[in-house]
Amino acid sequence: MEFTPANCGIWRVGVAVESGTPERAPERARRVDRSQVRSANRRCRLHLDAGRGWYAAGDQERAILAFLEADNASPAELRSRPSVREIVGQMVRDARRWGSSELRDLAIRIGIDPLDPGPHGT
To answer: Domain range holding 47?
Structure first.
């Protein structure tokens, strides 16, 4: 593990999500110098937690974009996260006419059928 300002910033984003203040995560994520994040898994985690924060703050479009960025950084890391599957499944269930093309793309990428998201995002 590296103790760089960028990596410490990623931890701050995660702490915001896990400590009950997820709406703070996107602002903390904006402060992280992405050019200093060397690991694809850490870049994924940054976007994943920012997406969870955007979702908690009620901004589904930004959450989707953050999850897509996380998937581009490290598909296996994002797709293995139950919290993401749960959030995306809920967004698909809540969306009218299957939501945006970005939401459909994200759902398909993580293995959720946008036509039948199921009760638990699976």
So the answer is: 5-109
Tokens of 86: 């749960």
**H-state helical runs in 1-122:** 5-18, 25-30, 40-56, 60-73, 75-79, 82-94, 101-109
79 burial type by CB count under 10 A (0-12 exposed, 13-18 middle, 19+ buried): middle
pLDDT tens-place string over residues 70-111: 999 999 999 999 999 999 999 998 886 657 889 989 999 999
Distance CA 110, CA 122 (A): 9
Q: What is the CATH number of the domain that holds 87?
A: 1.25.40
Locus of tokens 């959450």: 63
- CA dist., res. 60 & res. 117, Å (int): 17
